[in-house]
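Subject: sequence -> structure tokens, single chain

Hey, anyone have a minute? Need the predicted structure for the following. Not urgent.
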Amino acid sequence: SPGADDNTSGIAVLLEAARVLARHPMPATIVFAAFTGEESGLWGSREFVDRAVEAGDRIVGAINNDMVGWSNNHRLDNTIRYANSGIRDVQHAGSFLFSKLITYDSRYFRGTDAISYYNAYGDIFGGIGGHPIVASPYYHQSTDLLETVNHQLITESCKSAVASMMLLASSPSRINGLELVRRRGSSAEIRWEPSPEAGIVSYTIVYGPADDPLRHETTANEPQATLTEAGPGTVVAVRAVNARGLHGWDWARLTIER
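Reply:
Had a minute. Here:
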């Protein structure tokens, strides 16, 4: 049936990314999965996630590519559809450093396979997709044929995806369990769960008021810290750093309540 853009284009990116990355082992495991039954009720992605949860798999990030092949006036533009701002930023960087893509972004994932991840693991995903920002006129039409997709756009989207996956798999993921232990005046003690990933050497902490959350920066070698000038309303963010100097691609955050 017709479906060159939705979603043969995404499958083409998946297959080519798998072919390229097979020659370049990563520190983290990358699973390539193609899901069926999205528009029948997310059957494939729900089954995949259910099995991952049952097996105790620690999925920390996902890229869901869906409809990456239609070009408006032959422009090489595509939309990053995301829930995780860190993955979104990685994808923007991967696009302009390693491809010719012009990227927009949209916090959009309603009705997509990404919802299955969200329900089980939270906001761990990004991805490239044509809807809703660059909406194809052939969407769900009999004209969604090979002749209506831009092959160069699919190629550039794949370059972006490969670059993004390599950085995500090489960098620390978001830490868990960030919490306020106690507050005394303008000082605050915080702690978090140690990163389970190998090669973590330190943690970067930034904090400040809501209108200037990067005002202070400090480093901790253990999963705890005491912050000064951290009164009520202070926004705190922590991420891990590994031995290669790569920072975590997403921050764990909390706000010190009044």
